[in-house]
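Can you give me the bound-state structure? Components:
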Amino acid sequence: MKDLQQKYNTYKTPFEESAFEHFKTIQQKSTVGQKVQSWHIAVVILLLSIPAIFFIHALMSSKDTIVQDVAADIKQEEKQDAILEISDVNETVKYDNETDIKEVKPAVTETILNDKITNKNTHLIKQQKEIPNITPTKQQDVISDIRNDIIPANQHVIIQSNNTPSEKTGLISYQNPIITIQKTIDITQPENNIQITQKKQYKSQSVASKTPLLTHEDVQDFELSPILNPVSPSAPNKTWAYYRNHLKLSYNYADFYGNSVLGVIPGYKNPSYLIQGEYFRELNKIVSVGSSVGYARGVKSGAAQDSLSNYENITFAHLNLYFFLVNSEKHQLYFKAGSGVTNTKRQYVSYMPPPQDTIIQGSRYTNLTNPGLLLEFSYNYHFTDRWFIGANAGIIAHNDGATYGGLSLGYSF
Amino acid sequence: MNIKKLTEGVKKRQPDKERQLYILLYENLFKVPLAYCADKEEARGVFNYSMVDIFKNIIDAEDEQSLLKWAYRILKNDCIDHVRKKATYKKKLLYVESDNAESYTSNDAISNLNMDEILQCISQLNDTHRLCFVMYELDGMTHKEIADKLNIKVNTSKWYLAEAKKKLRTIVLNEGITYYPKLKLTH
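Here's the bound-state model for the whole set.
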């Protein structure tokens, strides 16, 4: 035995140039394989980055919307307040001076409106800054000041407030005061034979008034609080539109079966990819119909016997039925069954039984068209009402087969 | 030959250094797949795929012997894996319990042959017999190691070795050293 081992250890094989050429070919293929793998990774990153961009964009725009909503709300509120007062002033002007309201109103409205919009915040803050120092005994004086400041001389203001001073702090809670403006028109005017009494009642809904008890710090934060508050109190509810039709593009990592026609060599799997584009329409919340086209390529790698690139290309067109397990606003989970035509192109690797007992390296080319079947589980997440990202896992079978799993991006319309 | 410069050149993908290293490894180690595989083409495939891995992960060896030892270990494992997978697929790994497996352990029949002739004889054995024979007789592995590597029982390994020797004796004495026609690529 030792003699045999010694012979074996000292044995040297003469170099053959053809062996080195073969080695260079395999080395090049290996480099190409690495590039293909990089491409796989790049596609996956791309598929993930698209919804991420949409998500970030949606997040940014929603922040802008909130700020704009708050600003618009404040402005709208101020305008309404100002209009109420302006209409009162205009009516007074009309009845007192017997002038045409159409001529006076725009000028007065414009001036006062601008004035109010510009100064009202400061005006309110100034007033509210005084509030923490109010004691029950000074309440009437402050009310009088506010009245003189806001309400014209010919109007009477009644402030109805259920707010009582805090027993502990002695401060007034300013929650929802109800202000009634009572306006009296001079009945001696010739065109007004009756006394007109108009009551306007409104609730102050300023954001600052949401605070049940105003303190000095609260008043200082008056302007910032609506912006910092992520939810606008009067922001309109966003509707999530429902679309029946969906387009979807998926990119999958496929694993071709190795032990049938293509993969005679045991243990060598064929990592490869499957791309699928599909359209489906929801008939109802449970069933959808659709169609899909796809392409898969199985690259035969790792087989030591290969001197040529062995591969299998599959092109398919299927009609599909979708059964939804979950079909909510944002989430869809479904099982898809599809059937149709599958075209397969491949190279053979054949095994010769004993006494040859070896594998024939070959590139015998076949082009087959068979009926095919595809079964898939898929999950879609709608990050907007139109766009969604998904994950799929399935099996495609023709006269050979492959399992696959990957990511998808879709659009609903 | 300066091994350090050679390995550094291979790392930098210098073609001349790659060629030099390939020649060195081919002359010293091509016997390994040649012993394990059924024919030269198959052996070349196994060898070259292993070489791709070896070139990709080349180590900074101090001398030629350490580099060859490292490459030999990789190559031997690749060969065993390759043949084992092939044999498993063809379902030829039988599980045999034999008490008198040691009865066929003589190497008389092939001891007078040179290495080329021995390799030619070995190549005519089927995969499993050849695997056990090469691992035991040429690589010097014990039956325990073979059993662990192939996931078979020790007695099964012994039985395969005995069978391999029996067949080798028949080949050498009765049939002579014959070659199967080399299979051509089919297009």
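A couple of observations. Residues 26 and 48 of chain B are 9 Å apart (CA to CA). The radius of gyration of chain B is 18 Å.
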